[in-house]
Write a structure and sequence with these properties.
The chain is an alpha+beta fold and 426 residues long. It has helices spanning 8-14, 20-29, 261-266, 361-377, 386-407; strands at 41-44, 49-51, 56-62, 75-78, 81-82, 88-92, 95-100, 112-117, 123-132, 139-144, 151-156, 168-175, 182-183, 186-187, 194-197, 207-215, 218-221, 225-227, 242-245, 253-256, 269-278, 285-287, 295-298, 306-316, 334-337. Strand 19 and strand 20 form a beta hairpin.
Length: 426
């Protein structure tokens, strides 16, 4: 900038401005010049693209027709930080050279800002420096449909993922045996690497789907995924999940939910899964054999314990499709607690049977075996829990009666009068 015309732009250039804003404009506008707009200097090469680990030889040449133009006193900055003077050398009176080796990836995808400054700090020229990697082959494409008219897909960008350059991903699709390539247009719908096709999809015919990745250093294409829309239908998680106690039974909880609305709209069938965990654990136990019911009873739980329960849905048999759909997300956790046990714990003062009292061990063992069989085969199935409920209620009543006797300090008689009696209807 001519020294004889110190306008507002020159004055602002002499102040130490915050580096991010003007430096960002460098790569957006493509190497702007000095504040006055004059072609004071030029950097060569302009806006280079290099692989990580490469070297760069750059020059800043001051135009000879500029009054007082000289390379003496010039210096370089990269992303707002002044580079060590030993990296630069004067080639002649108007040109300053810069040597950079073993370049790292660009700190911003829009390019690093390489700037040539005059002695007074004013900007003479700028260049965008793009250093990165070519895109890797995208993989792990997965797609699903919520209404048989749309399709949402997501993918993994590559083994390492980061290219340090702006990389464009395009989801392409077409009918398998005919038709032209189509490009998805609604990106980032369920994450950074995803796209949504809202309509105009055909049923009963397979689609080919793939992803293309492109940046300044090259391009890559994923493997082709072939799918039928009817085979990738999913739903929202089951709504209105309720978990409640089963009377006074201390080892059970009842779980009920409502089928997702999509099942009614499209006459889908569905199967469900339940998972549950205790309050202070991160380990879930999954119940697979729920089939197509909308209720289930969890048995064999710990008394006096808080449980978190979730349900998810998988539609199947859609218009005769032989494949199961895609599992929905899990519903929001619902919490409930089992009743506390009334049995005395170890050291609770329980009276032991005297020598003449007949042992009830065999009866208890048989009932325990029956209970184990029933829980195994009636777990969330259509078999009735009536017998199990009767037996559990009788057992809890029996324990409560014995606890009352122990509280009063009485023990069972030794004449054999005490016996285990099964419920009348068991």
């Amino acid at each position: 900038m001519p020294a004889s015309r110190p306008g507002p732009a020159a004055q602002s250039a002499r102040r130490p401005p915050p580096p991010p804003l003007p430096l960002l404009l460098l790569c957006v506008l493509g190497a702007p010049r000095a504040g006055s707009g004059a072609d004071t200097a030029v950097i060569s090469p302009q806006d280079p693209t290099l692989l990580i680990g490469s070297s760069l030889q750059a020059t800043c040449s001051v135009h000879g027709d500029t009054p007082g133009a000289t390379a003496e006193g010039l210096y370089w900055t990269l992303n707002g930080r002044r580079l060590p003077p030993e990296l630069s050398r004067m080639l002649n009176a108007s040109t300053m050279a810069l040597a950079l080796a073993n370049l790292n990836g660009s700190r911003q995808q829009s390019g690093d800002n390489l700037v040539c400054h005059a002695r007074d700090g004013s900007i003479l020229a700028g260049s965008c420096l793009y250093v990165g990697l070519p895109p890797e082959k995208p993989f792990n494409i997965s797609c699903w449909s919520r209404n048989m008219k749309d399709l949402t897909c997501r993918w993994t960008p590559g083994t390492h993922g980061e290219t340090f350059l702006h990389t464009n991903y395009s989801l392409k699709y077409k009918l398998r045996w005919y038709g032209q390539d189509n490009t998805c247009e609604e990106y980032h719908t369920v994450g950074p690497h995803s796209c949504h096709i809202p309509k105009d999809l055909a049923l009963f015919t397979p689609y080919e789907i793939w992803v293309e990745a492109t940046n300044r250093l090259g391009s890559a294409r994923s493997d082709v995924l072939t799918l039928d829309i009817l085979d990738v239908v999913t739903t929202d998680p089951p709504p209105d999940v309720h978990v409640s106690r089963v009377g006074g039974l201390e080892d059970q909880l009842s779980v009920r939910w409502v089928s997702p609305p999509a099942l009614k709209d499209f006459l889908f069938q569905a199967k469900y899964q339940i998972r549950y965990r205790v309050e202070d654990s991160v380990d879930w136990k999954v119940v697979d054999d729920v089939s197509n019911q909308t209720s289930c009873r969890l048995a064999g739980l710990k008394p006096g314990t808080v449980y978190f329960v979730q349900v998810r849905c998988n539609p199947f048999g859609i218009y005769g499709s032989k494949k199961a759909g895609i599992w929905s997300e899990w519903s929001h956790p619902t919490a409930a607690s089992t009743p506390r046990s009334e049995r005395p714990g170890p050291g609770g003062g329980a009276c032991e049977p005297r020598g003449g009292e007949p042992s009830s061990g065999p009866v208890r063992r048989e009932l325990k075996q029956f209970l184990g069989w029933l829980k195994k085969h009636a777990y969330c199935s259509n078999l009735s829990f009536r017998l199990y409920d009767q037996w559990r209620a009788w057992m809890q009543k029996s324990h409560k009666t014995r606890n009352q006797h122990r509280t009063r300090g009485s023990c069972p008689r030794a004449d054999g009068a005490r016996r285990e009696v099964l419920p009348d209807k068991l």
